[in-house]
Amino acid sequence: MFIDKAKIFIKGGKGGNGAVSFRREKYVPAGGPDGGDGGRGGNIVLEVDEGLKTLMDFRYKKKYIAMSGEDGKRKNKFGKDGEDLILKVPPGTIVKDEETGEIIADLIKNGERAIIAKGGKGGKGNVHYKTSTRQAPNFAEAGDYGEERWVILELKLIADVGLIGFPNVGKSTLLSVVTKATPKIANYHFTTIKPNLGVVNVVEGKSFVLADIPGLIEGAHEGIGLGHEFLRHVERTKLLVHVIDISGIEGRDPIKDFEKINKELELFNPVLASRQQVIAANKIDLLDDMEKFKEFEKTMSRKGYKVFPVSAATNKGIKELMLYITELLDKIKDVPLQTVETDHEVFRLKENKNKDELIIKKENNIYIVEGKSIEKLVYSTDFNDIDSIRRFQSILKKRGIFDELKKLGIDDGDTVKIFDIEFEYYD
């Protein structure tokens, strides 16, 4: 099965906690703090592997969490950074933030990498909290949590030329004739259920990748049939070869077919409709009246299109078409991937989107405070040390937590619960 879309959960590793430690050498009975910093958490990294062709692996495993950083150590020794978790993807993979729909990476070249979830920063050791008035800080900073998000992986084929057209017009046959690809061919609509790739080499030293894009139908831009899945693969091609059944043996009108397919491209993404097209008037061997072809060619020429009479079944005109495409590709510049929503030429991972939402509420006469930064503060505090407690209270005050508790009606002696720790409140 061809898997070209997957949804996965990714989470960078947690940063290691800073260490609380003091020098204990033989001739230094009251040594100062020497707790080292925690290591950085591992990143989630995607790397292009040209040997991969599908996103099949991500169908069976949905969650990926990188390694946490080591905690800091005594003697000012830093904890080791967590190893990055490297996930291999095929070339042509686009990564979207599931919540916002924003593209955060577009991976094309073999070996190309992108960090899609950063690991948390390591916490500072107690050596950083020594001051002139606080010589022996008995607390350190906890490591940050890594970024986490659901992402959509989307595979878009990377081909120079795409074959488009209605089902059963001979695209798969044409691909099999000019390349070594062996697509499944039969006489029914939507014969091709996945895009097929092949390499065309008609000029020594020059070749191009040709993709047989599955047959389109009216309404494809709305997702009818497998419209969206198929149209997605057209976006990366530099040139489109529009295959038309010129014989009309199924009662089709070649000009109307051409207009309908281009309308679907335009409705899905206007950029696609502007791609340069060459027309392959296929099944010319089944056409009794050549005037019908001449009329079609004249109409298309007025619109600015080059038309080739071909027969994929008998090889008629195929070499001439492929030679023309080879020459034309040298003149066409690479087309950056664009969509109607935004320009996607630049891809940068946004800053940490983990929202630190503070929750302050009252349940059963207990006041509850929750939030990632508060959790980190709790685990960074030594509640047996007066300096550490003062720092804890100062941060709560700066964050406006005491003011919010007062708005909820807290009184002296009431219980405040912050995660697993309960306090008595006094103003």
TrEMBL record:
<keyword id="KW-0378">Hydrolase</keyword>
<dbReference type="InterPro" id="IPR045086">
    <property type="entry name" value="OBG_GTPase"/>
</dbReference>
<feature type="binding site">
    <location>
        <position position="172"/>
    </location>
    <ligand>
        <name>Mg(2+)</name>
    </ligand>
</feature>
<feature type="domain" description="Obg">
    <location>
        <begin position="1"/>
        <end position="158"/>
    </location>
</feature>
<dbReference type="GO" id="GO:0003924">
    <property type="term" value="F:GTPase activity"/>
</dbReference>
<comment type="function">
    <text>An essential GTPase which binds GTP, GDP and possibly (p)ppGpp with moderate affinity, with high nucleotide exchange rates and a fairly low GTP hydrolysis rate. Plays a role in control of the cell cycle, stress response, ribosome biogenesis and in those bacteria that undergo differentiation, in morphogenesis control.</text>
</comment>
<dbReference type="InterPro" id="IPR006074">
    <property type="entry name" value="GTP1-OBG_CS"/>
</dbReference>
<keyword id="KW-0460">Magnesium</keyword>
<feature type="binding site">
    <location>
        <begin position="212"/>
        <end position="215"/>
    </location>
    <ligand>
        <name>GTP</name>
    </ligand>
</feature>
<dbReference type="GO" id="GO:0005525">
    <property type="term" value="F:GTP binding"/>
</dbReference>
<feature type="domain" description="OBG-type G">
    <location>
        <begin position="159"/>
        <end position="330"/>
    </location>
</feature>
<keyword id="KW-0547">Nucleotide-binding</keyword>
<dbReference type="Pfam" id="PF01018">
    <property type="entry name" value="GTP1_OBG"/>
</dbReference>
<feature type="binding site">
    <location>
        <begin position="282"/>
        <end position="285"/>
    </location>
    <ligand>
        <name>GTP</name>
    </ligand>
</feature>
<dbReference type="InterPro" id="IPR006169">
    <property type="entry name" value="GTP1_OBG_dom"/>
</dbReference>
<feature type="binding site">
    <location>
        <position position="192"/>
    </location>
    <ligand>
        <name>Mg(2+)</name>
    </ligand>
</feature>
<comment type="subunit">
    <text>Monomer.</text>
</comment>
<dbReference type="GO" id="GO:0005737">
    <property type="term" value="C:cytoplasm"/>
</dbReference>
<dbReference type="InterPro" id="IPR006073">
    <property type="entry name" value="GTP-bd"/>
</dbReference>
<dbReference type="GO" id="GO:0042254">
    <property type="term" value="P:ribosome biogenesis"/>
</dbReference>
<protein>
    <recommendedName>
        <fullName>GTPase Obg</fullName>
        <ecNumber>3.6.5.-</ecNumber>
    </recommendedName>
</protein>
<feature type="binding site">
    <location>
        <begin position="190"/>
        <end position="194"/>
    </location>
    <ligand>
        <name>GTP</name>
    </ligand>
</feature>
<feature type="binding site">
    <location>
        <begin position="311"/>
        <end position="313"/>
    </location>
    <ligand>
        <name>GTP</name>
    </ligand>
</feature>
<dbReference type="InterPro" id="IPR015349">
    <property type="entry name" value="OCT_dom"/>
</dbReference>
<comment type="similarity">
    <text>Belongs to the TRAFAC class OBG-HflX-like GTPase superfamily. OBG GTPase family.</text>
</comment>
<dbReference type="InterPro" id="IPR036346">
    <property type="entry name" value="GTP-bd_prot_GTP1/OBG_C_sf"/>
</dbReference>
<dbReference type="InterPro" id="IPR027417">
    <property type="entry name" value="P-loop_NTPase"/>
</dbReference>
<dbReference type="Pfam" id="PF01926">
    <property type="entry name" value="MMR_HSR1"/>
</dbReference>
<keyword id="KW-0342">GTP-binding</keyword>
<feature type="binding site">
    <location>
        <begin position="165"/>
        <end position="172"/>
    </location>
    <ligand>
        <name>GTP</name>
    </ligand>
</feature>
<dbReference type="GO" id="GO:0000287">
    <property type="term" value="F:magnesium ion binding"/>
</dbReference>
<dbReference type="Pfam" id="PF09269">
    <property type="entry name" value="DUF1967"/>
</dbReference>
<dbReference type="InterPro" id="IPR036726">
    <property type="entry name" value="GTP1_OBG_dom_sf"/>
</dbReference>
<feature type="domain" description="OCT">
    <location>
        <begin position="350"/>
        <end position="427"/>
    </location>
</feature>
<dbReference type="InterPro" id="IPR014100">
    <property type="entry name" value="GTP-bd_Obg/CgtA"/>
</dbReference>
<keyword id="KW-0963">Cytoplasm</keyword>
<keyword id="KW-0479">Metal-binding</keyword>
<dbReference type="InterPro" id="IPR031167">
    <property type="entry name" value="G_OBG"/>
</dbReference>
